[in-house]
């Protein structure tokens, strides 16, 4: 997370700030080390807004990169696809979208956002689901099964648990009725809409990246609110899905490939990708499994193991063992090792977390070097961090890794300023923007 004085320096060094409202012209040449401010208009365009996701791309930036650095019909990959912004923009721009993510709810959201559903089928299914929910509500003695998970009764009021369980039962009942040949995408769509309201109807702080309870945060949730929020969201997102489907039906290259894998092992063929665009997680920033734990419990995506076991698989994880950070780990990188030494003096654990992040990113760059075609580009958007008071210039470190350790060429870098923040974080740690690195695999 970059500090304010650093960003002010960046602004002063720039001869001009390019400010764009909405779409960027792909012919626009952003100067190397230049500054750009994109005022987004499309954060909820079509299915982009189906589910909140922390640190989400606003669509205009990947759209620009896709249009500028790839051609119609080519394969565009996001190896850490999150909620699927890049994949969705790829198919909307007549490319084949490829998305990989280790996070199960990210994969589900991406799948739903990029899977069209016939409008008439969707209308009938939405009406049927609404009627089924109402039918269960009228049954005074109906007691739905409520899933068991840690601290469940702390996270939700009893009537909210019951109402969410009725929505889930209604979806399942519709599925076993065999009314719809397109049931799998419909079921996924309904579950993602249901997931999108879970944080809002829980007792958790809606503004925190982590799922936490706060005594000062009191939500006004009344009996019936969960049903009303779900139906309202369902109708809104069904309308956006219909618009998305109409656009997709008129395009030629709308294939989506969502392999099971990770950013470090995508499972893709050598030299099969024409362009990669991603925004990696930040060190010490968003704990994705914990952020979405309530949603994943309800959707049955976490399994029986502890959350900490799941978290260790993520790039940028904070789940590390004591014996891993007992001694200082160094990388051999000029941009990173002095930073690791400073952090280690203040917090050995944070120093190892920082080391591991960049070590994982080295492996990630190596995987991208393998799957990208010669001459193609890898566009990486990354924010800088402040860890235990030590400034970590992540973009400079990633450039050194990409060039000296992996073999990419830095074609360009520019700074994309932020003007809106979805999640409240302390002002001193608040990111003022992100660096966009345009890396090129040698021909």
Q: What is the fold's blueprint, element by element?
A:
Blueprint: H1 4-13, E1 17-21, E2 35-39, H2 60-69, E3 75-78, H3 85-92, E4 96-99, H4 104-113, H5 119-138, H6 152-155, H7 158-176, H8 183-201, H9 225-249, E5 256-257, E6 273-278, H10 288-291, H11 293-299, H12 307-311, H13 337-346, H14 348-371, E7 372-382, E8 385-387, E9 390-392, H15 394-406, E10 409-417, E11 433-440
Parallel strand pairs: 1-2, 2-10, 3-4, 3-6, 4-5, 6-7
Antiparallel strand pairs: 7-11, 8-9, 10-11
Helix pairs in contact: 4-8, 5-7, 5-9, 7-8, 7-9, 8-9, 8-11, 13-14, 14-15
Highest-level CATH class of the largest domain:
Alpha Beta
Q: Roughly what percent helix?
A: 40-55%
Order of helices and strands: HEEHEHEHHHHHHEEHHHHHEEEHEE
Record the strand order, biggest sheet: 1-2-10-11-7-6-3-4-5
Strand share of the residues? Answer: 5-15%
Number of helices, where a helix is a run of at least 4 consecutive DSSP H or I residues: 15
Beta strand count: 11
Q: Round the mean pLDDT to the nearest integer and report it.
A: 88
